[in-house]
């Protein structure tokens, strides 16, 4: 799924001691899963801000404001994912450098200007992450971690709504 989602060079996830009742094996696999989603959330947060800063054209103010609202939503996902990850004994890797290494998204083009181009490109990124979130929901369910499953379900619901808001600009 990710370019490199292991927490250290040996390929095993290091966990902090916790009284969390989930088994260590499940916690380890959920930390790895959540690291990928944390990196992707950081990436999409700044892809959205990149669009916000650089958008031009028809309906500028509406799209500019939409991108700012979407940025705030995705920033919330970053915090929620990182806090779940650390609550189950993980160490959140939330830096931009970690996002570059672990995000599932393609790099965002730095030369986009037109609102429609930003809307289409961001929609692609959100859809890519949404599909991965759905797989993560299944993985968390199969692992027996209903809280991570619920967290990812909430993120997925928000991503679907964001996709709807963006696609509505170019659908008829």
Automatic annotation (TrEMBL):
Region Disordered, annotated ranges: 1-21
CDD domains recorded: DPS
Bias (Polar residues) ranges: 12-21
Limits of the Ferritin/DPS domain: 32-171
InterPro entries: DPS_DNA-bd (IPR002177), DPS_DNA-bd_CS (IPR023188), Ferritin-like (IPR012347), Ferritin-like_SF (IPR009078), Ferritin_DPS_dom (IPR008331)
Domain of life: Bacteria
Biased composition (Basic and acidic residues): 1-11
Family: Belongs to the Dps family.
Name of the featured protein: DNA starvation/stationary phase protection protein Dps
Organism: Jiella pelagia
């Amino acid at each position: 799924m990710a370019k490199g989602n292991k927490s250290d060079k040996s390929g095993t996830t290091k966990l902090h001691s916790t009284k969390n009742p989930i088994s260590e094996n499940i916690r380890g696999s959920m930390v790895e899963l959540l690291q990928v989603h944390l990196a992707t959330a950081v990436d999409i947060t700044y892809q959205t801000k990149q669009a916000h800063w650089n958008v031009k054209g028809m309906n500028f103010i509406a799209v500019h404001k939409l991108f700012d609202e979407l940025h705030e939503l995705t920033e919330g996902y970053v915090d929620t994912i990182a806090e779940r990850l650390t609550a189950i004994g993980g160490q959140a890797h939330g830096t931009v450098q970690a996002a570059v290494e672990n995000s599932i998204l393609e790099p965002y083009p730095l030369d986009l200007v037109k609102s429609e181009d930003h809307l289409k490109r961001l929609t692609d990124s959100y859809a890519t992450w949404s599909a991965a979130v759905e797989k993560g929901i299944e993985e968390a369910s199969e692992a027996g971690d209903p809280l991570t499953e619920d967290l990812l379900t909430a993120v997925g619901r928000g991503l679907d709504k964001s996709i709807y808001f963006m696609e509505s600009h170019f659908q008829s």
